[in-house]
Design brief:
This protein folds into three domains: 159 residues, ATPase, nucleotide binding domain (Nucleotidyltransferase, domain 5, 2-Layer Sandwich), CATH 3.30.420.40; 78 residues, Dna Ligase, domain 1 (2-Layer Sandwich), CATH 3.30.1490; 116 residues, Nucleotidyltransferase, domain 5. It has 400 residues and is an alpha+beta fold. The strands form five sheets. Strands 3-2-1-6-11 form a five-stranded mixed β-sheet, with helices on both faces. A five-stranded mixed β-sheet has the order 14-13-12-17-18, with helices on both faces. The structure holds adenosine-5'-triphosphate (ATP) and magnesium ion. The site of adenosine-5'-triphosphate has 25 residues, from helix 6 and helix 7.
Amino acid sequence: MKSKVLAALDIGTKSLKMAVGKIGDEGDLEILGVAEEPSSGVRKGVVVKPEETARHIATLVKRAEQMTPSRIEEVIVSVGGSRLFCVPSHGLVAVSRADASISKEDVDRVLQAAQTFSLSQNQEILELYPLQYVVDGEQDIREPIGMKAVRLEADVIAVCLFSPDLKNLTEAVLEAGLEISGVVASPLAVATAVLNPQEKEMGVAVVELGAGTTSLAVFEEGDLRHIAVLPVGAENITHDIAIGLRVEHDLAERIKTEFGTCLGPKGKRMEKIDLGNGETFTFSAKFVTHIIEERVKEILQLLQKELKNLDKQGQLPGGVILCGGGAKLPKIAEFAKKELRLPVKVGKPRELHTVEQDPAFLGVFGLLLLQTKEQELRRETRKPSRAAGFLKRLFKAFIP
Ligand SMILES: Nc1ncnc2c1ncn2[C@@H]1O[C@H](COP(=O)(O)OP(=O)(O)OP(=O)(O)O)[C@@H](O)[C@H]1O
Ligand SMILES: [Mg+2]
């Protein structure tokens, strides 16, 4: 059977990213390559001008197609932005069958019941994660079907978002001439790429430091506990440098990416950057490090507040895994470790053989892994499925 090209799309504030792959002979995912294109029409992780974004997606696809044997027609895409949130919920139903054994329908009904919490008119549920079932008061049941009971309860986490954000995103992708095989909350796409089951069991936080946003996904005892997206990211560091050194944005960005570091030189060292026209700009490395540290510290404090709300501050044995373009800041892991008093490391793609080690591409790798698992399941069950719905339902099984 000819293997179809798999493509994943991450619509970021600063750049659009795509990873392409195919399923190898062993059934595992083979990465064919990655491509990146400057973003447009995106503010703080949210598509605000779909047509503009669509044009850039189309350019990105053309670039990615140079690495694939056939056209890219369909993508799995992640959705981010600070209006993504999660709601823990609970459902309860009476078991319907006369012989009192729990059926698939009972499970569907209890999950339905768990979705009846109030959302504003412009909000909707993107994905629902069953955490545990409670069967006649017996907690921590994962597979209730077939068990005999009168009462079935479910504890779930619903990942929700602002509907217009999802609408704009899908509009941009469709307008670029692509079909959408699934939409995944971006913190979960990243988590899929980096987490192993032990980390999830121990308790771990995956933090993605993007340009316009910083996202957080917390796992405990093997399950998703929390997700949040903060409307602040590595682009704020650039702004701070631009203001602090009184330079233009592009120069500030260069200073940040070429010289920036956390825990940098404390001496009075001056650095010089070539402006290309025979001129140079001289600045204090110590001052730039100070600006970076202050902003990173602020972002870490916001994350700590989120963890505190979960009673998890300082108690995540699996620590924090840093991803996203901001994770490329030298010494950021050491700095975060000191600030958060937790083990911190930069994320690496798990169970994937790829030369691409850029932490900004972990999100698209996670999406490809999800797409691969979905296809596997689809093949196994031979059920034709509406991919998006299928992905939503089975997503939980895929996260490591
Ligand atoms: N070497 C580096 N040092 C410091 N920062 C870096 C480095 N490389 C990239 N960055 C920063 O990472 C950010 C881009 O990261 P990323 O590609 O993950 O963001 P995005 O996906 O476009 O945005 P978002 O996810 O917030 O919508 C930019 O602010 C960029 O300046
Ligand atoms: Mg991003």
